[in-house]
Design a protein that fits this description.
Length: about 375
């Protein structure tokens, strides 16, 4: 979740992207320490063993992909941990003379058991997947995010001399194309729409019909971004998702019969508006979420209906881009742009966290139904 949000805003503000990752890491650590101190290890293990979601995650943790991700996350930290454990053993040997046999060694019993466990891994497969994960990280974090914003910045310069109607039309066409690309998040499209359309509208030439005013142009950019998102949902679901769903291999790869995907399907099949449905459709990654609804052959009308509250995510993104056009008028405009972009990230993060909670709750309440053969 944090990787997706950070990569979405990486091109717009690299410092804020780093802050998101740092805050997420620190927040996760504090949350873990609080839970451990409040409930204790025994209670946490008891609750975890009763959770279908945790059971599913524990099953995934034994895969080479999970092991590769673990090594990517800890990397040098693992070597530091081994070194610190070795130093601790050296200190303990000075005063703990009657140590048990299992504690007599270069490292502690716990560390030795851990090293023996990872020694049995299929390291050829793990290292291969580490390379693939690093390549994916680079493509999403550096490649897609940066290239997207560089391209859109170039486009902004090209559109400066065109009429407002032409600018809106080109932004719409390019926005749709970018929404149909799997790795491109929606945030860059919204931010660019705010930059380009408001910049073209913000001028003082009374003879130019495109000079409708800064705030009017910003509102127009919000409307265009909203239409883009809803149109993209339909196209991703009908053109891509439903066609992919015809393949048994794709269905197996996605895991349409797995309890987690069936829980998502159960939530999304609820007609009308519901908070869980809105959280999944608005908080989830743009392309994967809409394509998944197509693979599961859900009602496109209901999916569009559930996506409509995304206007509350689009407004701060567009406003952030629009405010960048006024940074030359004072530092306050740049600060406002960063603030509203952070608000957009917080809204999406809140939606994702709520969606994860609802998914866990649904798995617990309907475990037998979701795991039954169909």
């Amino acid at each position: 979740m944090c990787f997706w949000i950070a990569s979405s805003i990486a091109g717009s503000s690299s410092s804020m992207s780093g802050a998101v990752m740092g805050f997420a890491g620190a927040g996760s650590l504090v949350l873990f320490i609080w839970a451990f101190m409040s409930f204790g290890k025994a209670r946490l293990l008891e609750v975890a063993h009763k959770s279908p979601l945790v059971a599913s995650l524990l099953g995934m943790a034994s895969s080479d992909w999970a092991r590769a991700f673990f090594i990517c996350m800890v990397n040098v930290g693992l070597l530091i941990a081994v070194l610190l454990d070795f130093l601790r053993q050296c200190v303990r040997s000075l005063w703990w003379t009657n140590r048990p046999l299992k504690e007599r060694g270069m490292v502690s019993h716990g560390m030795r058991a851990f090293l023996e466990r990872i020694r049995g891994w299929h390291w050829g497969s793990v290292l291969k997947k580490i390379c693939l994960l690093c390549l994916l990280y680079y493509c999403l974090w550096v490649g897609v995010a940066k290239v997207t914003y560089v391209f859109l910045s170039w486009l902004n310069e090209r559109l400066e001399t065109m009429s407002l109607a032409a600018v809106v039309g080109i932004i719409y066409i390019i926005g749709i194309i970018m929404f149909l690309l799997p790795p491109v998040p929606g945030v860059p499209v919204y931010v660019t729409a705010g930059i380009v359309i408001s910049a073209r509208s913000y001028c003082n030439d009374e003879g130019d019909e495109s000079c409708i005013g800064f705030w009017q142009g910003t509102v127009l950019a919000v409307i265009i971004g909203y239409i883009l998102k809803l149109n993209a949902v339909v196209m991703q679901q009908k053109i891509i998702g439903e066609q992919l769903g015809k393949s048994i291999r794709i269905q197996k790869f996605v895991g349409v019969d797995k309890a987690g995907i069936r829980a998502i399907e159960k939530i999304l099949r609820v007609p009308g508006y519901s908070m869980p449905k809105v959280a999944i459709l608005c908080g989830g990654p743009d392309w994967p979420t809409s394509v998944l609804t197509g693979i599961m052959k859900l009602s496109v009308f209901q999916m569009v209906l559930g996506t409509m509250p995304c206007i509350f995510l689009i407004i701060p993104c567009v406003l952030s881009g629009a405010l960048l056009n006024r940074t030359g008028e004072g530092a306050v405009w740049g600060a406002l742009a960063s603030t509203v972009l952070a608000v957009a990230g917080l809204i999406q993060a809140a939606a994702m966290v709520f969606a994860a909670y609802i998914l866990q709750d649904t798995l617990q309440k309907h475990h037998d139904e979701l795991t039954a053969y169909r």
